[in-house]
Amino acid sequence: MSCTLTSIYASLPRTTRGQPIVLGADPKGKTFLYANGNSVFIRNIEDPSQCEVYTEHSTAVQCAKYSPSGSYIASADNHGKVRIWGADNKEHLLKNEFQPFSGSIKDLAWTSDNQRIIVGGEGKEKFGHVFSADAGNSVGEISGMTKPINSVDFKPTRPFRAITGSEDNAVSFFEGPPFKWKTTMSEHEKFVHVVRYSPDGEKFVSGAADGRVILYDGKTGERLSELGAPAAHTGSIYGLCWDSTSRFILTASGDKTAKIWDVTTGAAVQTYTFGSELKDQQVGCLWSGNTILTVSLSGQITYLDRNGQKPLRTIRGHNKSITALTVARGESQGTKIFSGSHDGLVIRWSVDGREMINITGDSHTNQVQSLASNSRGLVASIGLDDTLRLFNSSWESYDRMEKLSGQPRDVAVSDLNIVFLVCGSSICMYREQQGILVTHPLDFEPTSIAVSPQGTQIAVGGKDNKTHIFAVDGTALTVLRVLELRDAVTRVTYSPDGRFFACADNMKNITCYQLPNFEPISRDMWRYHAATITGLAFSPDGKKLASVAIDTHLMIYQPETITKVTQVKGAHPLNPVTCLAWLDNDTLLTGGNDCCLRKWNIKC
């Protein structure tokens, strides 16, 4: 049996309030870069569903930039490590790794000859450094600032110059190589968030938390003018980007707007307004060829129309850990994917990953704990805000919300539109038509729940090292049998064809049973994970069983041939896998702490 990764539904950039994010552009204008966690995402500009992920950093990546030749990418992380790796091959082979200082690197830039890199950030011994991209040796000294550097850049033409923007409200100017401090400009009244040179090298610009954008001479550092004086924006400037002609500048601000400025007149020629909520603050931007895009505090990427107000496209997704996943199937509504994340967001994806819609309305205010759906299009979500929320898979908004008496652990939905969930020390049954919640107290603490394909039976895993099977008759539950396991039960699941049942325990054992008599067929044989199993599901035809775990691995079992097991180690590299769902008999989706969904093709 083979298991091949076919596509990645990428995460959005990880954002932090009050902090800019750094975007990198391919010199050829085909792709762009951003970071989330320990991953660097390379996305196609025209078709963002085409994505590659670089996951070799051991800690959170802060920035990544292409070399001017486009052959390499330099990425820097919280520990001060800079990795230089191949951009034009899928293996992304490492060329060099350096550590210019100990501490977080917030920004970096290449010289136009691909020979030198400047980094700036919050180091323990210094805030910036310039070094050779080939050997790592020092090419000057970045000094003169008293607080961390937020942004750096190089003059793209000779003679080379370097600039930094720092939290001491200053822009520093360096001549070189080797680069030495020349002067400091203290025009801004608050943190300088971003500095950028124009493509022709004649000017550079700074943007700060005071909302001002100031232009300087590219060769001398002399102040030339200011855009939109007394201030370009009413909020902090988090992003600046020049167009290829060096005449126009794009700015992104915390005042929830982005503007295009004509440098020759100092006036704004286009203003884009994004909304009124906190999440609409704009914290980064990119101008690559004819593509203009900005990133909001929510992580959403918006493609802007140079000649109009309405966005050309909005890229949605998760930028927090994905915690829940389900696939809704039905003849009327088609197949749709739903994922939930740590921040309470639920997203509906198209099967090809090209379309994504946020489920709106009365949303969860805390982590989405679990998602479940049925063939009638009913989708149920439970969250750590102690609520059950329902909606139809064809809709874009929640329909109903039910407050629960405790914290829910797991949820299942039958084709009779009955929602089963375990909450506290009880089973709750919610009848969708009547809107009635019925609670059945238990004498053990439940951890997971599953409903049989016919809806006449449920299985409840418990911390008492047992799986309890109940018969369902209306609102009544009757114990049918109890399955003994070696440790607390973590996951339970029925096969959609009704032939098998499986459960996983805290000792990482997976036991598969033959139905209807629950005869064990894999006891003590399927123990391949090294950490807690977080997801367990059968393919629609019941011929394959998949499991995922905190150990980052994916396992595929065959109930009819129990000795055949396919192991995919590092399915989500360096990140726990938290959930899974089958699209069809040969296609599996997994979600994890890397905020991505990964699609796998599985062939026997």
UniProtKB/TrEMBL annotation:
It holds the Pfam family ANAPC4_WD40. GO terms for biological process: actin filament depolymerization; locomotion; regulation of actin filament depolymerization; regulation of actin filament polymerization; sarcomere organization. It comes from the Eukaryota. Residues 493-584 form the Anaphase-promoting complex subunit 4-like WD40 domain. InterPro entries: Apc4-like_WD40_dom, WD40/YVTN_repeat-like_dom_sf, WD40_repeat_CS, WD40_repeat_dom_sf, WD40_rpt. PANTHER family: WD REPEAT-CONTAINING PROTEIN 1, WD-REPEATCONTAINING PROTEIN WDR1. This is Actin-interacting protein 1. One of its GO terms (molecular function) is actin filament binding. Keywords: Repeat, WD repeat. WD repeats lie at residues 54-95, 185-226, 230-271, 315-359, 526-567.
